[in-house]
Amino acid sequence: MEIIEDLSDIENILIPVGGGGLLSGVATAAKTINSKVKIYGIETEAAPGAYNSFKNNKLDEDVEIMAF
Q: Scanning 13, 33, 64, 66, which has its CA 20 to 30 A from the CA of 44?
């Protein structure tokens, strides 16, 4: 709600994807206030669970640890 209140003409909101709770909460609030705003879920290459789940149409629960 603070995003929309502070930036009333906002067109896009980028939200980090983890388990999906933050993304769904922000999307629900933002779309309720401004149905035209676009919501984008963003995740790192190191943790592509949401992308893989969407791409393969099944839940991807595998977690691969990347050493840096």
A: 33
